[in-house]
Amino acid sequence: MRQDHLITATQLSRDDIEAVLDRARAVADDPAAYADRHAGRVLALCFFEPSTRTRMSFDSAAKRLGMNTVGMGDVDSSSVSKGESLSDTVRVIEGYADALVLRHPSEGAATLAAENVSVPVVNAGDGAGQHPSQTLLDLHTIRENHGLDDLTVGIMGDLKYGRTVHSLAAALTNFDANQHFISPESLRLPRSVRFDLHETGAQMREHTDLEDVIGELDVLYVTRIQKERFPDENEYHRVAGEYRIDAETLEDASEDLTVMHPLPRVDEIAPDVDETDHARYFEQAHNGIPVRMALLDTLMENAEAAEGMEVDR
Amino acid sequence: MSEHELRVSKIRDGTVIDHVEGGQALNVLAILGIDGSEGFGVSVGMNVPSDRLGRKDIVKVEERELSQSEVDVLSLIAPEATINIVRDFEVVEKNRVTRPDSVTGVLSCPNRNCITNADEPVDTRFDVVADGVRCDYCSTILRADIADHIDV
Ligand SMILES: [Zn+2]
């Protein structure tokens, strides 16, 4: 990957993805070899929206590369609530750190941040936009279980607002993957994501019933349907209930089906699925460490190479 | 009805924007940032019968020639428009508009949750795609309703 930032999954080529995932494999095989790789460097964790696990995952990945991390504290107590613009905030934080990880409630925030700083920026979620580092660890999990070609993937739940879905769908267009999108009518993929899929000639179909496709799938990626998306609570309970899976749902599935979820789950995957061989969501979450180490390592290496070039000139 | 019957008088120096899609004349003026306070003569003909468009609008602006970026944005709401530059009552240049690759600072993003709609010191930027424009920040696609999002 020769990129300066990771903002959306649409920017990633197959080579970019495979390079990071190869490195993630190397990291997982020999973490000690990476332990001091970026000693003395500082990663800023800029989370303008509550998050525990993504923040902890980046924090842990950075520390395992020898980096230190700095954070913003609670959003409520930081200058954000005093009305400072994101553009100003990241320009200030750039002075404290060698790279930024940004989570923000507005779509496009990471693009804006990257335009305002010269250190690498990783988008750790921008509203209902993208979450590309999650996609890298999702792809790593799929690759370790099935490989990334000749795949049939079902993505289910809130496809409209689910940023992990938008990034994963875009990234899968680099591979020989059939994509099935399963959701209630009101939470279908947004126009912009469908546009990109059509542009790349992706093989995709949309469904309202998991039953229609479950037997064909190699991977089922489940996401949470949130109550806030429905004006009426009864309507939420009725709709969300149709997109829950349990061990019985999976009886029609292929033996090799891998069930994934970006976590946290609430009740969209019943605990009895955990006991089946299909469940890979905890493995998937654990993959966040080697994959984010590989990603940070790559971006820091690119940034250091760019600095070197400036000096040489 | 021929053009002189419209009482849209000939102009001495300036620009005539012809073959604007019917109903878009005021948006054309909005794009040009013209609201009458500038002091130069402006004539507008709306819903004039046209062989090519069925009905069309015409905008004449005196003492003002259009910049390329203004023409670019016009192309989004008036793709059939012709731009006539008039000097001393003569049309000295006649151009069709062409679609630009991107448009900066003119349209507002229809996605209320887009960072360009937060209080940030940033111009909007849209890529021109097959049949619309697309926000460079949040990827939202804007199609038929482009004129509703002109922000000047
Ligand atoms: Zn936008």
From TrEMBL, chain B:
GO cellular component: aspartate carbamoyltransferase complex
Residue ranges of every copy of the Aspartate carbamoyltransferase regulatory subunit C-terminal domain listed in the record: 103-145
Highest taxon of source: Archaea
Cofactor, how bound (note): Binds 1 zinc ion per subunit.
GO molecular function: metal ion binding; transferase activity
Function: Involved in allosteric regulation of aspartate carbamoyltransferase.
Name of the protein: Aspartate carbamoyltransferase regulatory chain
Gene label: pyrI
